[in-house]
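pasting for ref
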Amino acid sequence: MNGWLAAAAALLVAGLGPVVWGVATGSLGRRVVAQNFATSAVCLVMLLLSQGYTRPAYVDLALVLAVLGPAGTLVYARLLADELDDDPPHANLLTALAASATAVVVVATCVATGPGRAKVKLVLIGVLLVAGNVIASRALAGGYPGTGVERD
């Protein structure tokens, strides 16, 4: 077992443990936030596993997940808007934690990958994950008040 696989295992346990707890025991808002965080955690685990097993195809899976994960959360936010309006979830801490973890993992894998197309793909995954998490978290919390981009 190398360091990449150990980091992936640690992130899997540390990231998905609270997610399972939040999905199993939480309110509707907590469950949707946990789903959003789970996509970030799994995407980062895929990046670490791609380095650990030297399988570049895992990066493609992480890219697809980085695109579809926040999109799925936005669909949930739209479909559950009436239920979420009563008590909108606030995931500022989880969003900051996901963004920080994304930055650490993406920078580490970029350094290990070296220059080339693979580095561009890793940076794109990082940007998509951070932007997707911020947008999805704001959508779950009720949008951007005062800008016209908010739930009715």
